Amino acid sequence: MNKQPAFTFRPFADVGTTEPFVARLALGLAELLDGTLYQNKEEIKESILRSCLECLIPAFVSLRELRKIADKPDAPLLNKTKHFDDMCKSLWSVYKDRMQGSAKLMGYGIGFAFDTDSKFEQGCVDFLQAHPEVSPILTAELKNRRATWQKELSRFRNEHLEHQTIKREDVAAFYSLQRAELLFHSVCLAIEETLVILIAAKLPSGVILRGDS
Fold first, then answer.
1. Residue 80 and residue 67: Cα distance in Å, rounded?
2. Which is deepest, 30, 91, 162, 209, by most CB within 10 Å?
């Protein structure tokens, strides 16, 4: 007689839909996708959900730990830098890789957003010409992110955390709770904006999305 495999139930995380970023990305975008003409809705939903579970929630856990110790002068410096480093790695991964993956499932290549300046500018032109159904707000937002926080986060992650061509003391000012809060908010908002714009491109004729007034 075959025995049933034993399962152990354990909580996965203590972060749920009470956090706005989870509610808006994992649930809100799924609801919007249900109203679109995408044939692979469930696959896209799964991609977005995995982005939350595997990247954004770990980033948030690091941010939450930073909030506990950021103002404590006796807190070990290693603890502060480790949580900040871990958060930035997760944020860059979800923004550059996971968001691209979800967009690709929707039929859109947005890799140009992470290319050199000249290739990025041409990529914006080519993208809008190839996809007239997509609002030009998308490329405008991509330009704004590059001009504000994207290049900074990319440089920190790639040149300091990964390749160590920048010493920790050279980026000491980067390690602050204020910077961590701003980066987390910026990445969550950027992912939501990007995917909402692509979702809106595949709504039935006569249906539009409207933001909160």
1. 10
2. 91
Indicate whether 119 belongs to any domain: yes
pTM: 0.92
Q: Is the Cβ–Cβ distance between 27 and 4 less than 8 Å? A: no
> Is 50 part of a structural domain of the chain?
yes
**Token duo for residue 200:** 């809106």
Tokens 């691209």 map to which residue? 100
Average pLDDT over residues 146-174: 92
pLDDT per position as a tens digit, 6-35 = 777 677 778 888 999 999 999 999 999 999
Domain residues for the domain of 192 are: 20-200
Closest CA to 164 of 85, 52, 46, 63: 85
**Apex 172 CA angle, 98 and 94, nearest 5:** 5
Amino acid at 46: E
CA–CA distances in Å: residue 165 to residues 146, 151, 153, 171: 21, 16, 15, 11
